[in-house]
Amino acid sequence: MRDVLQYGFVNYALELLVVKTFGEETWEKIKKNAEVAMEGQFLVRQIYEDEITYNLIHAAVDVLQIPANAILELFGKTFFEFCQDSGYDKILQVLGATPRDFLQNLDALHDHLGTLYPGMRAPSFRCTERPEDGALLLHYYSDRPGLEHIVIGIVKTVASKLHGTEVEVEILKTKEECDHVQFLITELSGPGKTSCPEATQVQQTLSIEPKVSPATFCRVFPFHLLFDRELRVVQTGSTVARVMPRVTRPGCRITDILDMVRPHLELTFENILSHINTVYVLKTKPGVMEAEHQDVTQEFSYLRLKYGN
Does the domain at residues 214-304 carry the CATH identifier 3.30.450.260? Predict the structure, then answer.
């Protein structure tokens, strides 16, 4: 029994796809087969049960006589266009100059949308390279099973429309084989890759001596945490120290006080370096926060981690 809820923009985008491609009469037939008894269009900001979406997809397969995977991939293309037409075109254009950068920053867009759609349970994405050849692997985490072909449609459309690149997207592992879906993304044509100089090639011109004392820094940035390669906390902002006094204990590690919510990877220094521009969502472990702050402090903290020698 699927009890996950979602906002109506997914159903509305599906409605637009069917009406635009197959006509209003076909959409009404799909709604009838899906036992969706409602007048008018789906409302973007209204919350619906996921079961409605799945029923609509199954009904579309029966009515259109098109395989589910093909419908979902076409929906992915339409959903991206729907997002562009809904006023997110500028945001989408600046998420990344390459398909990899775009996908790596997609969670940041979901974090932004979460402020507009409270309680939204968006999927999560992260990118890695295949060790043997450096090929791009996309890791997709979602509470909603069976929708991975939507991702294929979105990735192909993003690469084509935003980056002038044609890509092939192949499912390497399904959720049944591991805890998430893995895609292999292969560039077929495009402007080619651009390389950036290695950090070691860039001449360092700034002094390594701090211009601000640690005490001043802690007051100016009261919510910061500074940790070493062993994840031991070596410096913390004044507010963090007040609401989480355990962080000031000698030898305290980040993993002693916080759990990773997103991205979906083990919290290690090496993983942080490999995803250094990713927005990290962490939550406090039970009992870490002072009782007086339990109800007034947000459970989740949005952090962008930076690396310094």
Answer: yes
